Fold this protein.
Amino acid sequence: MSVWLPSAPCTPGACLERTGSATAVPRAVLRLLAVTAVLLAGIALLPVGRLVPAGAVRWWCRAVVRASGVRVRLSGAAAPTGGVLLVANHISWLDIPLMAAVRPARMLAKSEIRQWPLAGRLTAGSGALFIERDRLHALPDTVARIAGALRGGAAVAVFPEGSTWCGRAQGHFRRAVFQAALDAGVPVQPVSLRYRLGDGGSSTAPAFVGDDSLLASVWRVVSARGLTAEVEVPAPIPPGTHPDRRSLARAAQAYACRGRTGEHRASVITEPSVTGTGVRPRSPVLVPGTAP
């Protein structure tokens, strides 16, 4: 394991709250079956994935989260069209469909995700860019591939902390991937993710940290009651406003943190169910580590 590999101090024993009870098992099983069904539907559409409209992809991504029993709240502006680097704090496996609900994008994913059941095949089939995190010498090539995708007009989604955190603490945005946005001359779209309980307090139940297993994390989510995923989209950072990747990374994290602390609140649309008809606002409603 490389000494530079990003890591977080969060562990299942220290950070993760217990969810559910014996009486919640039937509901959790039904949710697990629902998530599996939605994922299988996505896999079935992979051969024609490029023909599926972006709006349908966003709906499907929200359906994955809703099927697990988690309500979704999206607030802010629509992400820019064309090439854009989407960056967010990283807490859970749920972050991946939530980012795609903001805008369908090619995900920069750790190579281990290829081995995940169902989700691994979906991630690979979606055109994800995989990175072997313990190979530092491969990083320049990864940055070049991201820049190439951005120049071609694609959206690329990245979690610059390089590791998951429990949600009550957050790591630093590592600056390497921001070089790709600078090289391609595209905007950076920060996204703030957090998970709350029904009473409004933060929840660590969805976190996927430390030596936690994917199955344990999924079961914890489907067993929980009253979880809400909040996704805030501040104004994007235009190209040319920051001279180097260090200042761009700091600005992106500051934007995301402002969303997390509520300095820039926006009207919120809540999706009541998988088949809900809530429509995300398409115009802005907000006023607006260290790898080489």
The mean pLDDT is 80. Strands lie at 71-76, 84-88, 106-110, 129-131, 155-158, 188-196, 228-233, 268-271. Residues 93 and 208 are 7 Å apart (CA to CA).
